[in-house]
Amino acid sequence: MKKLFLCFASSLGLASSVQAELKLPAVFGDHMVLQQQQANPVWGWDTPGTKITVRFAGQNYSTTAAADGKWTMKLAPLPANATPQTLTVVGSTTREIQDVLIGEVWLCSGQSNMEMGVGMVDNGPQEIAAANFPNLRLMMVPNLWKPRPAADVAGTWKVCTPENIAAGGWNGFSAAGYFFGRELHRKLNVPVGLIDADWGGTRIESWTPPEGFAAVPALSSLNTAVQLGDPGSAAHQQKLEGFLGETERWLALARTALTNATLVPAMPTYPSDLLPPHDLQHPTALYNGMIHPLQPFGIRGAIWYQGEANNGEGMLYAEKMKALIRGWRQLWGEGEFPFLFAQIAPYNYGNRPEQLSELWEGQTAAAKEIPNAGMAVINDIGNLRDIHPKNKQEVGRRLALLALAQTYGQKDVIYSGPTFQSLAIEANTLRVRFDHADGGLVSRDGQPLNWFEIIDADEGGYVKAEARVDGTSVVLSSPEVRHPVAMRFAWSQVAEPNLMNGAGLPAGAFRAGQMPERDWLGMQVPEAKSYQLVYLLDLAKLGTDIRYDIDNRSQIKGPFDRVAYCLELQDASGATSDVFVSMDAFTDSLDKIGVPTVQSGARFQQNVAHLNIFSNVKSIVTGTNLEVGNLEFWPNNYEPNNAAKVPNASSASFDFGDEPSAPADGYGSMQLHNHDAKQTVFALNHWREGQRADLGIGNAPEGNQDWTFAANAGSYKTKQLRIYVRCK
Hints:
Blueprint lengths: L1 H10 L21 E3 L4 E6 L5 E6 L2 E6 L5 E6 L5 E10 L3 E17 L1 H4 L8 H6 L3 E8 L16 E4 L1 H4 L9 H14 L3 E7 L11 H5 L5 H9 L5 H27 L24 H7 L9 E5 L10 H17 L6 E5 L11 H15 L3 E5 L14 H16 L11 E8 L2 E7 L5 E3 L8 E5 L6 E2 L1 E5 L2 E5 L6 E6 L9 E3 L8 E4 L6 H5 L7 E7 L11 E2 L8 E11 L5 E9 L19 E5 L2 E5 L7 E4 L2 E6 L2 E3 L19 E3 L7 E6 L4 E7 L8 E4 L20 E10 L1
Parallel strand pairs: 1-7, 7-10, 7-11, 8-10, 11-12, 12-13
Antiparallel strand pairs: 2-5, 3-4, 3-6, 6-7, 8-9, 14-15, 15-20, 16-22, 17-18, 17-21, 19-20, 21-23, 24-25, 24-37, 26-27, 26-37, 27-29, 28-31, 29-30, 31-34, 32-33, 34-35, 35-36
């Protein structure tokens, strides 16, 4: 029975209160490396009240195990030493940790590109065979998530040998980590210890401690969720108390119902937000299982390779990096230790091409805004067909360059490619000045500089720019752009730009300048000032329920005689397509001029009179007082049969003469046509599908001319529909 109690207590994290012998965390073991020139914490557990003595390198310290069995002390700072020494800890029993070196210790963390082992890289077998470095030591933390912070992990320190570098993990020890550590070991000539704690496919939130979320105001919702899941927090206890009160009241009602043989009301459901992390992607889950047990082991800093799982978050990722780094630094208690990371490589994710560029922008912002952080750009050594590029040797080397320059103060080390300094408008050109143009700005492949784009102040989207090197600047121009105001570089997930400095280090993605704000409606549509806005709908929010961002129905006084629609679309290049079309009112109900959902009661298949059409889309037939328009507004499914006998329409393909069909709450059509010109003026179909809705101005370039089945709404960066009336 006593043995059973001890096991149960251990499972609850109470082992310290019944500790039978001295125990040290796994991070203390034979072949370990202690951080040089830094006070190194040593800790463990023993029977409460037991005297603990630690002896190492002539130092001798004693303390007493606390009431919970935990004890801790710090060794005085020591210089690097490659001579193996013994760390002795005496308590209820004695532990001797052999072959301890003193040098540089780094934590290597992130997702699969950090986890990817040496066996998977270019020339993997040769790299493994050459991995014989007695003073380079390796510890691999097993993949493990926990709902609460763990006290310890499994794992052992190993000497770097071909056998050990290839063992465990995902085809061996972290390749990026190993090549980073190998470079430091060679250049600093001191022992190096590497702790490999990573897991493929994981989000940054899972690696972040609660303290990190609390330190970043932009992540307040995540902080609230983490606090609710923590049984020790006031928020958790308050909400749990409320639930218990509801449950107690339910129990009383249930007992009364049992006595009276009446129905029992539904039992209160346990609030799901009170649950702790319950899978590896939940905030704090991997921190709890793989990072917390390492703290506060002495380290110099951390390297990080992650971001693929957070692609799409743009600048929000910078806030999440702040949370991760501030949280780790706070809990390690070593101040603003170095945090170096790789900017993830180009890869064709198959989504919005600029989505990855926005994440790169977030990573760049993190490197600039977080003290003692640095980023290695690797857009020249990726693989667009493989999310796990194999040249991890260069990834590790570039991270090591950052450490050698920024952490270890080596003045002759060039550690960065060209970085944006400033932008100036010079007549019809843009001058982009760069820092870190060491050895000059050059083309990696000898070809003209690529992936530069500029945009005009008045018209069009981003266009490819001619780029000319002028000292530490690049001068941009294009015959298509008379008044350039903004630029961007490498702004695509498949961008592998060729701009680098003389040291062979590439420039990363960035954008600069003031994007033009073009009031197309005010400049090009004189009659617009006579109309009142009824609805504004951000089409990025399309879904089953249509919820207008602006709904002014209550402010429209009196009847109206004209209705107008303005559709504005912007593609990934920044190019905008606009159309404004007004017509005689086809209904006297404001409810029925919006998106024709079942709830709106709108269902129109009819001609409309006196069309005024304005558009910057060159293919659109524009004009005023046109008598050639027809509506196809309905929530139904529809067929191509031209039952309404619309002039020029086909009965074989979807166009401007279709026939609504069952069900009434079906695919949905919101189309306006110029049947004389055989043209769709604008179309919004299948809105319940959100980013897979059909959306367009003019005839679709392929498929059905009215955009049916285009499923293209997500291809537009911004999209907005405004609906107006002209009151009598």
